[in-house]
Amino acid sequence: xxxxxxxxxKETAKKLFDGGAxxxxxxxxxxxxxxxxxxxxxxxITGNLxxxxxxxxxxxxxxxxxxxASIRAGEELKLHVNAALNVGCxxxxxxxxxxxxxxxxxxxxxxxxxxxxxxxLVERGxxxx
Length: 129
What we know:
By secondary structure, the chain is mostly helical. Helix content is 77%, strand content 0%.
């Protein structure tokens, strides 16, 4: 059972985080403090939650990006913007998701999200859109 979840975790992480902008995944900071807990977090988040099929990978990443933009979690947003692009999210739709955040989190959150989005696109060599 552990081997199957470990394989699913690696497969999902590869789809999300390999390629695009060179960003340090959260797993590395977790691992620096507690290797076993980092593995448990990774299995749950990446191996179980992010590998579910109810939402497509694109839908799941757009939801993650909207939430992270709303709570103004810029560093984590960078990872998920890059992941969203890695799994095929349309950059125009992702920008629209950030504009939608204005209704619930305000324009400062939108502005920060768009700045993060642009920085990731620049690093990937995909700016301007």
